[in-house]
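F.,

This is the one I mentioned.
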């Protein structure tokens, strides 16, 4: 065990975690040059296209140090985006140490601080690494000052690297061996292993990723999951070296995978403890805290026949993404679907794209919403995240919405732009402080509902990409909430309803009507699209009809002949409008989610 090291690479978005992982993998020669590709641990198409890491990935690196001792290094590459911080906390639970990457040109950013606190919660040994030292804009001395002032770490211990050129990679491997503690545990005690991830293989069933804390596990052992007492016989155990490499056994301190013919996807839970059936451990390992979803949206299949396929796909995706929460839902307009909870809008976007790509489904999503607390006149408190469940306004005494504490780190020249953006979103400025002579940390209290739409994109725009943003939910506060209904030709479409603050209702209603006008195809009759609050119409767009030229054959002659034909056409259109059902395309439902007019 003294020759095993389990560590993670954590950082803000785009500070070079995946590139550094690539260099470490190349330095230990576990992949031939011919098979190597950039971002080798990002194995989903969506990760490569967007250039972000979504899933934390494990790889076991063999390393021989300068003295000639052989080590086994278990590296876990983690995501940087705030929506996937849950992935980071799960990865850290299986580690003893972490390398905290800081971009030499950008310095310490909001997510750098958030990830540092996550690592400190797990009592990890933290080694700062200054990356991208080859950039012309790199300022190493300023970054060292920030490490000392903002993070409270010793700047002298910081390792200087360039993940792009490979400079300093050897120093990181030596630091992992010298500075990080080996795992603790007893290989002869009863088996105690923690599941930190899993994925579904159509040929082998569920493949469980786990860290062994005590004992040993071998093929042929009968194991039990402690949360539901499900028992299985182990078929294969092994380690990750980009591909799965089977081993004779995994002992205390090691990280690897297990295949045990697990067909029922729901049996495997992240944070569960695995132990031997005949000789169980005394108590389960404390798992991960349950994630609290903050954004809710309903997902429906475009064709209602695909509901069963959607149900199976969501269950398999849940296995690989423990933070996804879902329950059954129905809509008059769209039929059967699922109400899902997400950690943020990027998470929602990724889940939708993975369902469409990996399971070949066509989906419709409803407008995202947050959880509101509603107190009724009789004192009953309801928690609502779905506009369809919003009660009659006359029975409501008060409504409360979630507020967040947002920490925004920006160069001070953007202070005014950030201030006005946050004030637009009903933000309250609480505090600001200079971290260095030019960088500023601004603290705001804001309603979560104003942040989930496009706040992050707008922040990046007004700060030219230099602003970084991190938030945590603090409490619930009184709000003036209304339900915005969308009527198409006088009929309510429940899937387009939104819960909004009264001040923003008119603006949101106009935006929704204009977007739908662009997406809904023209008919032979006029289509009215209206936004309403109760019986009051607050916005309207009209789709003008196609018009057949019925007077084309009347050339010359008396005007009354033309008028007669036009009157006849008008009567026909009226009749058509009474029976005409408007088909709403999938793009129309999606267009309502996008708030920008561009």
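My design for it:
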């Amino acid at each position: 065990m003294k020759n095993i090291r389990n560590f993670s690479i954590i950082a803000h978005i785009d500070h070079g975690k995946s590139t550094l992982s690539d260099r470490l993998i190349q330095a230990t020669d576990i992949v031939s040059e011919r098979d190597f590709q950039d971002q080798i641990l990002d194995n989903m198409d969506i990760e490569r296209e967007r250039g972000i890491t979504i899933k934390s990935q494990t790889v076991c690196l063999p390393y021989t140090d300068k003295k000639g001792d052989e080590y086994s290094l278990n590296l876990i590459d983690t995501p940087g985006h705030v929506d996937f911080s849950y992935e980071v906390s799960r990865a850290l639970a299986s580690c003893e140490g972490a390398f905290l990457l800081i971009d030499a040109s950008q310095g310490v950013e909001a997510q750098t601080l958030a990830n540092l606190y996550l690592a400190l919660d797990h009592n990890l040994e933290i080694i700062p690494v200054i990356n991208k030292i080859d950039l012309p804009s790199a300022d190493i001395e300023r970054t060292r000052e920030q490490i000392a002032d903002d993070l409270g770490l010793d700047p002298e211990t910081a390792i200087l690297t360039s993940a792009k050129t490979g400079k300093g990679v050897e120093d990181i491997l030596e630091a992992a061996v010298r500075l990080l503690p080996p795992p603790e545990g007893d290989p002869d005690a009863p088996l105690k292993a923690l599941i930190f991830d899993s994925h579904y293989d159509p040929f082998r069933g569920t493949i469980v990723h786990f860290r062994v804390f005590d004992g040993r596990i071998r093929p042929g052992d009968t194991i039990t999951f402690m949360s539901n007492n499900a028992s299985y016989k182990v078929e294969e155990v092994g380690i990750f070296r980009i591909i799965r490499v089977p081993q004779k056994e995994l002992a205390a301190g090691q990280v690897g995978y297990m295949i045990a013919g697990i067909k029922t996807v729901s049996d495997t839970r992240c944070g569960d403890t695995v132990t031997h059936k005949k000789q169980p451990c005394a108590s389960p390992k404390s798992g991960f805290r349950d994630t609290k979803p903050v954004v809710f949206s309903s997902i429906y299949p475009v064709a209602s026949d695909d509901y069963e396929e959607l149900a199976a796909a969501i269950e398999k995706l849940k296995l690989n993404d423990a933070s996804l929460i879902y329950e059954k839902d129905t809509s008059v307009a769209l039929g059967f679907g699922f109400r899902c909870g997400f950690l943020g809008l990027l998470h929602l976007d990724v889940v939708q794209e993975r369902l469409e790509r990996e399971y070949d489904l066509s989906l419709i999503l409803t407008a995202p919403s947050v959880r509101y607390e509603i107190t009724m006149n009789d004192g009953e408190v309801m928690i609502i995240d779905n506009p369809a469940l919003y009660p009659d306004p006359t029975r409501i005494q008060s409504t409360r919405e979630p507020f967040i504490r947002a920490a925004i780190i920006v160069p001070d020249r953007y202070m005014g732009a950030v201030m006005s953006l946050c004030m637009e979103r009903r933000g309250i400025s609480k505090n600001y402080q200079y971290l260095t002579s030019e960088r500023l940390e601004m603290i705001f209290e804001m309603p979560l509902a104003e942040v989930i739409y496009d706040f992050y994109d707008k922040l990046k725009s007004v700060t030219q990409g230099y602003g970084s943003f991190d938030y945590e939910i603090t409490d619930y506060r009184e709000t003036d909430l209304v339900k915005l209904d969308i009527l198409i030709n006088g009929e309510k479409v429940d899937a387009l309803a939104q819960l909004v603050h009264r001040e923003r209702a008119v603006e949101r209603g106009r935006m929704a009507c204009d977007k739908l006008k662009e997406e809904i195809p023209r008919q032979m009759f006029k289509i009215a699209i209206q936004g309403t609050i109760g019986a009051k119409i607050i916005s309207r767009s009209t789709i003008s009809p196609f018009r057949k030229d019925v007077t084309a054959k009347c050339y010359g002659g008396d005007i009354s002949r033309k008028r007669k034909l036009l009157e006849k056409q008008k009567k026909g259109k009226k009749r058509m409008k009474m029976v005409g059902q408007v088909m709403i395309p999938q793009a129309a439902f999606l267009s309502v989610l996008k708030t920008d007019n561009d």
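The chain has five domains: 4-179, 192-276, 295-365, 372-479, 483-591.

Talk soon.
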